[in-house]
């Protein structure tokens, strides 16, 4: 509690420091967004069966992964290059939006065409023309939303990300509407989330974006010169992002396929238990992600102050991280009870393991942020690649040995191994530096 008191006492000071201010708004965005997400899934749990929630989770994770494939690393590139884009900033933003928007339409069509191969349980989307068209439209929404938020971060206006989170909170009203009026089942849950993000993107593009980029208009643009400098940098981060997003996309499918022989309902329920535990854990992970994203933005503006900002980031993140982990470990059961007793029984152990892994996630995230500032692509690619292979590979093995908890154990073991490797690397570099000075 002393940590919390110290944080509250120094909050005005933190808000005057750009690194802390943006990190605080990004964390507030995650806290509020997650709180609204909890309410959303509580409403879902009241109207839909657990297996329908599980199918919706797989659909949502699929479209998020397709959006990640289509961003082409532009989200990270915008944070690094937009601060110095000058008069070319509008063309840079719109070119990124146009290329990624076109790309996601293409990959979503390919994904839907091949559902029989990689996600047979989701063929209900392709069988309904309305669902099919909506899926493609929503895929564009899910690629524009993160790109737009990264523009706000690059401009050090994370408060606009927070405003967007409040608007997307409208999703809490839609599950009941889609259920009572249309009875859409799993696709109704997916559509509820997507419509809310569509409203957020429209407000962001036409109201908030002109505030951070005076005179901005969302016009389709293709200018090679606008993105030429950032292509190589973005390409490396693109590969890293694909591997980084693979566990989130593949683990629900792994769980669905593993429990599939026991029936669609049991498989869908286990996906829901996993996802709800991970969603609560995401509040803790968000502390690290928010601070490191702010660190990345600050480093892009003031690279010479990187070491000093890393020390500040480490201190700041652990002031918040330790109490958060303790709270989740002690009260996780009651948090899951908000969704229903079955979620508490099925997801508690996963939640506790995910919470403990947040220490590793923090170290790994801060290290990755420093590599991005320094434009060192090898570790940016190697670490997510290692995590993707190890997490998904061990999940297959551990599911058979430990059951559903094996997915969380695979996650924590992989993150821990990465932290160990980073620790050895940093310590070795420190020793060599000291020797060279002697």
Oligomeric state, counting identical vs distinct chains: single chain
Rounded mean pLDDT is: 82
- Measured by DSSP, the beta-strand proportion falls in under 5%
Q: Which consecutive residue ranges, at least 5 long each, have pLDDT under 50?
A: none
Instruction: Please state the overall shape, judged from the principal axes of the Cα atoms.
Output: globular
Biggest β-sheet: count, sense, barrel? none
N-to-C CA distance: 43 Å
Domain module tally: 1
Number of strands: 0
Number of alpha- plus pi-helical segments: 20
Derived structural class: mainly alpha
Radius of gyration: 21 Å
Helicity, as a percent range: over 70%
Topology as H/E string?
A: HHHHHHHHHHHHHHHHHHHH
Structure description:
It contains 20 helices and no strands. It has 438 residues and is mostly helical. The chain has one domain. It starts with a helix and ends with a helix.
């Amino acid at each position: 509690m002393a940590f919390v008191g110290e944080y509250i006492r120094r909050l005005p000071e933190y808000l005057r420091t750009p690194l802390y201010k943006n990190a605080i708004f990004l964390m507030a965005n995650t806290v509020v967004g997650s709180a609204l997400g909890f309410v959303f899934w509580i409403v879902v749990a009241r109207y839909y069966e657990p297996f329908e929630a599980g199918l919706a989770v797989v659909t949502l994770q699929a479209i998020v992964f397709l959006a990640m494939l289509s961003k082409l690393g532009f989200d990270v590139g915008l944070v690094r290059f937009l601060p110095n884009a000058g008069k070319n900033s509008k063309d840079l933003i719109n070119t990124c939006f146009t290329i990624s928007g076109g790309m996601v339409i293409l990959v979503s069509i390919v994904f839907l065409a091949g559902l029989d191969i990689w996600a047979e349980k989701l063929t209900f989307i392709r069988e309904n023309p309305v669902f099919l068209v909506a899926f493609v439209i929503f895929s564009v929404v899910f690629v524009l939303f993160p790109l737009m938020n990264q523009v706000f971060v690059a401009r050090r206006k994370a408060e606009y990300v927070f405003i967007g989170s409040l608007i997307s909170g409208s999703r809490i009203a839609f599950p009941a509407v889609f259920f009572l009026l249309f009875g859409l089942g799993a696709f109704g849950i997916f559509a509820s989330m997507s419509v809310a993000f569509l409203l957020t993107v429209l407000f962001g593009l036409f109201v908030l974006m002109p505030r951070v980029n005076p005179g901005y208009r969302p016009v389709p643009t293709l200018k090679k010169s606008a993105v030429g400098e950032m292509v190589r940098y973005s390409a490396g981060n693109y590969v890293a992002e694909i591997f980084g997003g693979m566990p989130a996309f593949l683990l629900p499918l792994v769980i669905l396929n593993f429990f599939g022989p026991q029936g669609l309902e049991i498989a869908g329920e286990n996906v829901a238990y996993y996802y709800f535990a991970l969603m609560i854990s995401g509040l803790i992970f968000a502390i690290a992600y928010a601070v490191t994203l702010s660190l990345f933005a600050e480093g892009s503006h003031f690279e010479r102050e990187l070491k000093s900002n890393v020390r500040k980031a480490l201190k700041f993140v652990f002031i918040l991280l330790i109490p958060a982990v303790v709270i989740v470990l002690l009260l996780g059961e009651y948090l899951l009870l908000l969704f229903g007793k079955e979620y508490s029984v099925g997801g508690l152990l996963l939640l506790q393991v995910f919470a403990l892994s947040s220490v590793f996630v923090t170290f790994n995230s801060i290290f990755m942020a420093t590599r991005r500032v320094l434009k060192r692509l090898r570790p940016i690619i190697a670490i997510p690649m290692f995590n993707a292979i190890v997490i998904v590979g061990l999940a297959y093995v551990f599911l058979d040995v430990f059951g559903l908890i094996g997915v969380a154990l695979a996650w924590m073991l992989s993150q821990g191994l990465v932290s160990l490797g980073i620790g050895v690397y940093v310590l070795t570099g420190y020793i060599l530096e000291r020797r060279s000075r002697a």
